[in-house]
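Posting for a labmate who doesn't have an account.
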Amino acid sequence: MRLLKVLYIQVLIGIAAGVFVGWLIPAFAPTAKLISDTFINMIKMVITPVIFLTIVLGITGAGNLKRVGRVGGKGLIYFEVVTTFALIIGLVVANLLKPGAGISTDHLPKENLDKYTSAAKEMNWGEFFSHIVPTNIMDSFAKGDLLQVLFFGVLFSVAITRIGSSGAKIVSMFENLNKAFFQVIHIVMKLSPVGAFGGMAYTIGKFGFASLVLLGKLLLSYYITSLLFIFIVLNLITRYYGFSLWKLLVYIKEELLIVLGASSSESVLPNIMEKLEAAGCERTVVGLIIPTGYSFNLDGTTIYLSMATLFLAQVFGIDLSFTQQLTIIGILLVTSKGAAGVTGSGFIVLTSTLTILKVIPLEGLALLIGVDRFMSEGRALTNMIGNTVATVIIAKSEKAIDMDVYRKVVEKK
């Protein structure tokens, strides 16, 4: 009975119950989606203020704006290098396993792709960076645009440091506000087993296990690739920086299970920030790297985009040359960054990439719609793990982590 009081055990029960209910009662799917969406919305309602407050408190507490710029620069370089590895691994595994080979195009699902193609046309990659600057910060908070909130938060932090004692009063007030928002999160997280139940019941009830049969090889290939990326690439990086990936994953196990059930890495973003601070990472690093990472370090989404592109090429019997595959890497390094803050971003960015390539029919996207939800859990988990690891690494490189606290909290030494 004591185990039932542990949150991650409750989440596991919720996931198992969701699979069972979704399988037995498919008609429950709309209600299950409502439950899942409500839980995620309860988290989203505090994400932007928590991000803003963490950024402001971190930067004003750092007292060195040059260091803040250095942390941000290191983060962006790290993100670009690691996402490039993710892209390459996705292409290598897709070439070896060929998940699209042998799938007939005669029975493509008749899905309406207009919403994806139109959204892809509307995405102007040249304007991506100008979009970072908000026209109305209240609108940015309302929409949950993390990049715009991050940009404004940095400017606001600089302004506070220039107004002397008045700024100190604002910081003190923000400290109390931050504590209150995290208390809201703690209350909401008690409902995470219900949210995980709803998310899993919707996935199974809506799409069923049947869609897994046709595209099972693609799903298997994707998850193999994600595991290779996590336990080889990220593991080697963490070993180089002198900490254990496995122990870090155990430390965030509750958040991993919540993401698995809710199929959204946003559902645990504030929790991850709080846990990283509790593990000894300085607030400045956590406040800059986590929100930036959720825009520029989407490792799981990057793997998905590279594999899905090759999968569709194989379905249509299109033999992409080595040069064309290098072109895909180059395009995805740009287009994958546009996934930030866009609903259905994976499909929209994939559509945009295929439109640029002009060698793979867009109709093939209909094959992916039914199985996409089953892949979204993997994308969300990989994205979250990648950003958690990135924060610890940047903190270590900046000597912005108390390793005694980290070993005690994470590694239980």
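Reply:
Got it, the structure tokens are right above this. The first helix runs from residue 7 to 24.
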